[in-house]
Amino acid sequence: MDRIEQLPLDDWNDQDLLTRDEAAERLRQEIQVVTGELAQLRGAAPDRTTAAGVELLDRRLTAMKAALSELDGG
Question: To the nearest 10°, the Cα dihedral for 30, 36, 39, 40?
Answer without folding.
Answer: -120
